[in-house]
Amino acid sequence: MTTAVAQKTIHEVRLHGRGGQGAVLASKILAKAIAMSGLHVTAIPSFGFERRGAPVAAFMRYSEKPLRAVTNIYDPDYIICIDPSIPKAVDIFAGVQPGSTLIQATRHSAESLNCPEPITKVVLCDAVGIGMEVFRRPITNTIMLGAFARATGIVTMDALRAGLESANFRDAGLEQNLIAIERGYNEAIIKQRQGEEWV
Amino acid sequence: MASPALKTTHPGCAQSIVCDGNEAAAWAVALSRPDLVAVYPITPQSSLVEYVSQFIADGKIQAELMNVEGEHSVLSALHGAALAGGRTYTATCGPGLAFMFEPYWRTPGMRLPIVASLVTRDGITPQCVWGGQQDAMTMKETGWIQIYCETVQEVLDTTIMAYRIAEHHDVMLPVNICHDGNYLSYGVTQVDVPEQAAVDDYLGEKDVNWHVALDPLRPMAVDPLTGGAGGIGPSKFVAYRKSLCDGMQNALGVIEQAHQDWADIFGREFAPLVEEYRLDDADYALVTIGSMTGAAKDAVDSAREKGEKVGLIKIKTFRPFPIEAMTRALSKVRAVGVVDRSVHYGWNCGPLYQEVLSCLYRTGKTISARPFIGGLAGADLTEAHFAKAIQATATMWADETTIDSPIWLNEND
């Protein structure tokens, strides 16, 4: 069966996190990596007051064709959630299309995420655990970009590295972030929905 | 901080980068080689002046940077620099623009070719820090040229063109390049960055204080007292005011030429005054301004697929108002829905709607019209909103009616 997502010519990504975790920076890095992979891309952060810990979102579209709409995203086919507790605070599944993928920072199982029917693939990554080892702090944004690359194959690791190198890191060094995307990529666990099961 | 190069794609293009509209404007400033930049940060402009400051710190821009205590001083500093013959730049919006008003109002009368980005922000109160064009629209009768951009690439290209327009001897007026707060200021996408040498050729030698100067070798009274009801005052005042009006009218042709030359060198074409999209066989059309236009064009395409004969008219240059180009476009249809991102309190509509009404008179035809207001204070204008506007305009076209009460597109969001 062809899903709604498979029929889309413009793919839509929504990234959830909390203020201070670098969700917006991650979306910029990912946009650069997607552009280097030869696709058209637009990215835009949701707008709120900059407040540490408050839920934030960033939106991204990519396509083989030029993109014109400069709008937020309401029907995503990829959800990247870089914070384990955000699903308790906001409806990260709002508007999600059949055949979509969730890329979630968690050390728990796919079953524990209570994904609605349209989510047919989940990518689990213990980004907080990795972040504590790499940064000694729960920084998860670039780790989850590695998991996204692994899950989708849309961006190469080379493109992600190049995107990363263009960002200025004030608190954590480039070296650490290069390790972070590598570990996110390698340690992501991919699960497909099969009926009631995740395999 | 600055974005890395991707690949070279076009003639006259040094590199492609991925960046937001604020960074794109900063690249344009770098390529335009200003002598003095004065700044005061304000949301959603802040990252723009941070990029410019970084470029100056890195030596990418060989300009004097003045971090002053507020926007009134920002523009006053630019006045001095322009009178001394310098090329100048600043950016502001919203309450910062309001604080800048006194020198802002004087700038066109002194014929200073200053370029200032307005990263448009809605008016307070109610409190908000998000995009909307109320700030720029409030300034539309001050004598500044106002140009509104649709895309991040257009922000970069038009900001460079602004110096060519401002410094043209038949114009000599300040230019506001307006880009939508949030959607363009923070919207990230691919852009081509022109080559420095090609931009140098395009802009030519600056000559900005030939007419009025702070120059010990050419002592002159700057901004003399004129007016009143006796002596040479009245005729002098009229001469100054009339020449400013003439400069504004001259700007229309200069803006068109600046865009034509840009397209010839860099291969990118933008409609300089008014863009017509799928208009030639249209029964009715939307009229749009700024970054909302992309989603509106998508909505037009979707409606066309369902057999609706709808087109779109986008305005780029709002001051001076391109009366002829707008009238020509409007003449092609029998109904228009005009979408504004700000309000016009006097007419209970948007400012663009009010200007369109004047042009409808010039068409000599009976064309139905209705105002739409949306995207205030950061609200999103999606393809679905424009589908609604298209439907309402189609109904008006079928009924041959004009309805003056606005439809508020985000009223139920």
UniProtKB/TrEMBL annotation, chain B:
<dbReference type="GO" id="GO:0016903">
    <property type="term" value="F:oxidoreductase activity, acting on the aldehyde or oxo group of donors"/>
</dbReference>
<feature type="domain" description="Pyruvate:ferredoxin oxidoreductase core">
    <location>
        <begin position="282"/>
        <end position="383"/>
    </location>
</feature>
<dbReference type="Pfam" id="PF01855">
    <property type="entry name" value="POR_N"/>
</dbReference>
<dbReference type="InterPro" id="IPR002880">
    <property type="entry name" value="Pyrv_Fd/Flavodoxin_OxRdtase_N"/>
</dbReference>
<dbReference type="GO" id="GO:0006979">
    <property type="term" value="P:response to oxidative stress"/>
</dbReference>
<dbReference type="GO" id="GO:0019752">
    <property type="term" value="P:carboxylic acid metabolic process"/>
</dbReference>
<dbReference type="InterPro" id="IPR054807">
    <property type="entry name" value="PadG"/>
</dbReference>
<dbReference type="InterPro" id="IPR033412">
    <property type="entry name" value="PFOR_II"/>
</dbReference>
<protein>
    <submittedName>
        <fullName>Phenylglyoxylate dehydrogenase</fullName>
    </submittedName>
</protein>
<dbReference type="InterPro" id="IPR050722">
    <property type="entry name" value="Pyruvate:ferred/Flavod_OxRd"/>
</dbReference>
<feature type="domain" description="Pyruvate flavodoxin/ferredoxin oxidoreductase pyrimidine binding">
    <location>
        <begin position="33"/>
        <end position="226"/>
    </location>
</feature>
<keyword id="KW-0560">Oxidoreductase</keyword>
<dbReference type="InterPro" id="IPR009014">
    <property type="entry name" value="Transketo_C/PFOR_II"/>
</dbReference>
<dbReference type="InterPro" id="IPR029061">
    <property type="entry name" value="THDP-binding"/>
</dbReference>
<dbReference type="Pfam" id="PF17147">
    <property type="entry name" value="PFOR_II"/>
</dbReference>
